[in-house]
């Protein structure tokens, strides 16, 4: 079976953002690893992977919402809330630890569902709603952890942040499994297609009878679940819980940057969570590059801002050339 030039062109246009983000990350990481004092070793890969995984989960969460033409400014605070909750619950016997993990994930799912319900049925703007709920989630986190503390099942934490077979970072395996179990089924489902349609041309999708409300609710709920996984991983890395306001805001803003770098259109209806993951990996590598070249860490926000501005400019140029948003799918 041969594939026509038109089919290849369509496939490339569909995945162009993901491919560019992947190439950007690979190029930056090769420069980083080749200049690292320890060289290109499994430990270097593991350290970089563990640092980038947290942002990758939140970027996936942000992507799910952005493709519906929404935005989630509470993603970072859901991560912080679930981090604080995990520092209370993911301890003790294997049964208690397992139940604690389930409780943390259900909490994230509920936070996302709350955002979706308010936006869909309350008919409020996503940006206003998620600003309000982010304050609520941070308040709950502060009630749980007025000061940093708590603990986590260290055996489980070590298992999820170590290397498989002494080579492959477990965090990357979990990230890949999350893509396979959460993103791919959603993107190929009726609700996933409806989410893309809502972001591209909501009125036309509504007239076509697509389940827009359920699609948006699914997107926001899964976004909360993914942020909860990030919060769980933060607890595995730090062995503690902390209601850090600055950290929550940073993860929210960085997730938007990662989404843009990953080729996801902020106008909605275009992009992939896989691209957002590569965008997160590339965004985190900027700081690593500053480290290996011994540049002042104070320069990091400047470089991150320049990269983000470049990515936004490229996306804006592409959007300006489209006469109708439905042209994204032609």
Order of helices and strands: HHHHHHEEHHHHHH
Number of domains: 1
The CATH top-level class label: Mainly Alpha
Unreliable stretches: none
- Structural class, by secondary structure, is mainly alpha
Could you tell me the mean pLDDT?
87
Portion in strands: under 5%
Radius of gyration: 20 Å
Spatial arrangement of strands, main beta sheet: 1-2
Share in helix: over 70%
Structural description of this entry:
It is a single chain. The chain is mostly helical and 330 residues long. The chain has one domain (14-321): ABC transporter involved in vitamin B12 uptake, BtuC. The chain contains 12 helices and 2 strands, in the order ααααααββαααααα. A two-stranded antiparallel sheet has the order 1-2. The longest helix has 31 residues, at 5-35. The mean pLDDT is 87.
What's this, in brief?
The protein is mainly alpha-helical. It has twelve helices and two strands, in the order ααααααββαααααα. Part of the ABC transporter complex LsrABCD involved in autoinducer 2 (AI-2) import. Probably responsible for the translocation of the substrate across the membrane.
Name the features:
330 residues; ABC transporter involved in vitamin B12 uptake, BtuC; two-stranded antiparallel sheet; 12 helices; transport; Autoinducer 2 import system permease protein LsrC
SSE arrangement:
Blueprint: H1 5-35, H2 42-66, H3 75-89, H4 94-121, H5 126-144, H6 154-161, E1 163-164, E2 168-169, H7 170-187, H8 190-207, H9 212-238, H10 245-261, H11 273-292, H12 300-320
Antiparallel strand pairs: 1-2
Helix pairs in contact: 1-11, 2-7, 2-9, 2-10, 2-11, 3-4, 3-5, 3-9, 3-10, 4-5, 4-9, 6-9, 8-9, 10-11, 10-12, 11-12
């Amino acid at each position: 079976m041969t594939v026509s030039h038109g089919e290849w062109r369509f496939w490339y246009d569909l995945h162009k953002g993901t491919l560019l983000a992947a190439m950007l990350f690979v190029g930056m990481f090769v420069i980083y690893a080749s200049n690292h004092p320890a060289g290109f070793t499994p430990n270097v890969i593991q350290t970089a992977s563990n640092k980038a995984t947290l942002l990758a989960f939140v970027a996936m969460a942000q992507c799910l919402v952005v493709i519906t033409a929404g935005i989630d400014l509470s993603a970072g605070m859901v991560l912080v809330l679930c981090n604080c909750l995990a520092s209370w619950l993911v301890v003790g016997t294997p049964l208690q630890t397992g139940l604690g993990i389930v409780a943390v994930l259900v909490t994230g799912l509920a936070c996302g569902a709350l955002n979706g319900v308010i936006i869909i049925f309350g008919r409020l703007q996503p940006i206003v709603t998620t600003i309000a709920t982010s304050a609520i989630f941070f308040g709950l986190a502060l009630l749980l952890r007025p000061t940093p503390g708590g603990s986590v099942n260290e055996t489980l934490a070590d298992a999820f942040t170590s290397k498989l077979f002494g080579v492959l970072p477990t965090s990357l395996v979990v990230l890949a499994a999350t893509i396979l179990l959460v993103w791919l089924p959603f993107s190929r489902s009726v609700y996933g297609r409806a989410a893309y349609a809502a972001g591209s041309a909501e009125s036309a999708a509504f007239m076509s009878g697509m389940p827009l409300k359920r699609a948006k609710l699914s997107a926001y709920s899964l976004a909360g679940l993914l942020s909860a996984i990030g919060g769980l991983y933060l607890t595995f890395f730090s062995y503690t819980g902390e209601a850090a306001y600055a950290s929550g805001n940073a993860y929210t803003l960085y997730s938007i940057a990662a989404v843009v770098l990953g080729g996801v259109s902020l106008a909605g209806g275009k992009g992939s969570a896989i691209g957002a993951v590569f965008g997160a990996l590339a965004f985190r590598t900027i700081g690593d590059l500053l480290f290996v070249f011994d540049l002042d860490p104070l320069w990091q926000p400047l470089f991150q801002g320049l990269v983000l501005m470049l990515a936004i400019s490229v996306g804006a140029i592409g959007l300006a050339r489209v006469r109708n948003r439905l042209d994204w799918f032609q």
